[in-house]
Every structure is written in structure tokens, then in C-alpha cells.
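Quick one:
INPUT:
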């Protein structure tokens, strides 16, 4: 049994994926290029939107913020994971662990809200195009972005403080590849019932409300698109929101698999897979989904290519 003096650890040990050095090195050389792709692709979107004035519209401003979020929450987890895989040193300090918990929850929360705002933007653009310039004016757009970031940064504060003050007397060995709420709860001998109930209520108010708002926006969007007479008009309207729909489906699919269930149903192997899917695949796909068939970005890349050739 762990003594009382050890119930408040100075560091944790993160299990990761395997104890095999060969497998850890294989994971390192697989994850490193993906992390570099995430950084470079999202940074390219961010810089392109900042530098080219014709991209200074609400849709691209929101996309710019999405790129910042994808870079941020990926960088909260992957650099530490890469160091662990390369050096096989699996310890993480108590402070570093809960900083990781806070920022991961914060950026996830911010992305939930931003996707909802992006859905609202598409709703106004398709269902109320004549009012778009008023409803999505630069001032309103700035307020929405500010609200998303403020709520996203504030909401996880109490969660993090409460879980950091739990007594970790069962074990200091986290069965995950980073510090996440569920595996940490499995280690504490404190009563977590109230914390879990409050977390589900908060998650419902925030995530589910944002999802419902997104869903309602798309119900109106699809209804409006179906009422467009010409096939060309329907295709053009749908193409403006198809990228966002794809990202929403992938994001919420991973989020539901990870967090929308009781702690008693926690499965380390399954959770590691979904967490890796969420942390790596979504930020990798987002830039591709938003730029692959986007005419404005194609024009930007063509200008950059022409400049290089000159």
C-alpha cells in the first residue's frame, strides 16, 4: 500500500503504448512526420489567411482560429509523447501533468464552440444571404471569436483544480499516453461521484448544447438547399458547407467515443486508440478537407507558386 506521504505525488508515470523499445521507436518515426504535417499544414492556412486580404471574411477568420486550435492542442500532447517514445523516460511531473490536462480540455472545449459558430456562419450565409453582412459584420465576428476563446479557456479551470486536489493513493501509474481526466480518476481514492456528475452536467450544457445548435443550423441549411430550384444552385450552396459537415462528423464521432460514457466503462486500449485518432487524425484532415476543393485557397497557392517561379 502507498503511504500517506506518497498520496500527493511529485510525478506520475505514463504507461504509453508498449514497453518494447522497437515498437516505441516505430511509433516515434510514424508520429513525428504526422506532427510536422499538422504544424506545417495548419500554419500554412493561418499565414495564408493573414496575408491575403480577400480571405479576410468570417468563414476564413473562423478557419484561421481552427488552425490555431489544432496546432495548440496537438502541441499540448505530441511533443511530450515523442520525447517519451525516443528516450523511453515515462515520468511526467505533477505540475506538467495538470497543465496538460487543463490545456487539452481547454482547446477541445474551444473547438466544440468554434465548430458551432462556424455552423451558424454557414446558416446565415445560405438561409439569410441578404442579412449576412449585418449579422456577420467584423464586429459581430470578433465578438463570437472572443466569446469562444474566453469560454474555452475559463470552463476547464475548476475541473483542473478539483482533479489536481484529489488524493492519488492507489497508484501513480497512468494507463494512457498522456494525462487525461478519466485515467487520472481511476488512480484516486477520493470520492469522485460529485465531480463526475458535475462534469457530465457541464459537458451536457456546453458540448451537447453546441452540438444541438450545429444540428439545428444544418437542418435549416439542408431545408433551404433542397428548396433551391436549379441543380447548379443546390450544388454551389452545398459545397460551401460540405467541408464543415465532414469535420463536425469526424470531431464529434471521436469525442463521443472518448468521453460520453461513465468512468466505469473506461477501456485503456480503446481509449488510447480514439485519443490518438482525435489528437492526430483530425488536425491532419482539417486542412485537407477545407483546402482541397476550395477555390480561394487554390488561387492563393497558385499565386505563391507563380511567385516562386518568377
Amino acid at each position: 500500500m502507498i503511504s500517506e506521504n506518497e498520496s500527493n505525488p511529485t510525478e506520475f508515470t505514463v504507461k504509453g503504448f508498449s514497453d518494447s523499445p522497437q515498437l516505441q521507436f516505430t511509433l516515434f518515426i510514424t508520429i513525428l512526420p504526422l506532427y510536422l504535417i499538422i504544424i506545417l499544414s495548419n500554419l500554412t492556412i493561418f499565414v495564408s489567411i493573414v496575408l491575403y486580404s480577400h480571405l479576410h471574411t468570417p468563414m476564413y477568420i473562423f478557419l484561421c482560429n481552427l488552425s490555431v486550435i489544432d496546432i495548440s492542442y496537438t502541441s499540448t500532447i505530441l511533443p511530450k509523447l515523442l520525447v517519451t517514445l525516443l528516450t523511453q523516460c515515462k515520468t511526467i511531473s505533477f505540475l506538467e501533468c495538470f497543465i496538460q490536462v487543463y490545456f487539452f480540455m481547454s482547446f477541445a472545449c474551444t473547438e466544440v464552440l468554434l465548430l458551432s459558430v462556424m455552423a451558424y456562419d454557414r446558416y446565415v450565409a445560405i438561409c439569410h444571404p441578404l442579412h449576412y453582412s449585418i449579422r456577420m459584420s467584423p464586429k459581430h465576428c470578433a465578438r463570437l471569436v472572443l466569446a469562444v476563446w474566453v469560454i474555452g479557456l475559463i470552463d476547464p479551470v475548476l475541473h483542473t483544480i478539483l482533479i489536481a486536489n484529489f488524493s492519488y493513493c492507489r497508484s501513480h501509474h497512468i494507463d494512457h499516453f498522456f494525462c487525461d481526466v478519466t485515467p487520472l480518476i481511476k488512480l484516486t481514492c477520493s470520492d469522485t461521484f460529485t465531480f463526475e456528475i458535475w462534469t457530465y452536467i457541464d459537458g451536457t450544457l456546453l458540448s451537447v448544447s453546441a452540438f444541438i445548435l450545429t444540428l439545428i443550423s444544418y437542418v435549416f441549411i439542408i431545408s433551404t438547399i433542397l428548396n433551391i430550384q436549379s441543380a447548379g444552385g443546390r450544388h454551389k450552396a452545398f459545397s460551401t458547407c460540405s467541408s464543415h459537415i465532414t469535420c463536425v462528423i469526424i470531431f464529434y464521432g471521436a469525442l463521443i467515443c472518448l468521453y460520453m460514457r461513465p468512468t466505469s466503462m473506461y477501456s485503456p486500449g480503446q481509449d488510447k486508440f480514439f485519443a490518438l485518432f482525435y489528437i492526430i487524425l483530425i488536425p491532419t484532415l482539417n486542412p485537407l478537407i477545407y483546402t482541397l476543393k476550395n477555390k480561394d485557397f487554390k488561387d492563393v497557392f497558385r499565386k505563391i507558386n507563380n511567385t516562386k517561379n518568377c
